[in-house]
Amino acid sequence: MELNRYQKAAIMAYNPEEYGYMLNLKGTALERALKECGDGFFQSIMTELSTSEGCTGLDEAMNRCASMVRDLGRVCEAIELDMPILPAATCNVSEKTFTANAFDH
To answer: Is the same domain home to 10 and 48?
Structure first.
């Protein structure tokens, strides 16, 4: 396994301080680092943008990112609908702003 340009860009945008070291890994070392990183959201992003999952061009990478944003927006919306009205924190996803129970943090 080797990172493609979209995965590298994702690392640099998501959390380069924590995951930047992965830019220098390949093969089983990279697979192990991704598996053991402890960040499921990051793992999902990296999987969606992987060449082995069919992400081989800019259009496909952008479509996958847009799809992840829409999915996350629906999750925030569902959480918001299930929350009692309490002091809120905002969850900005795409062009919508969602609120979440501030006591959940």
So the answer is: yes
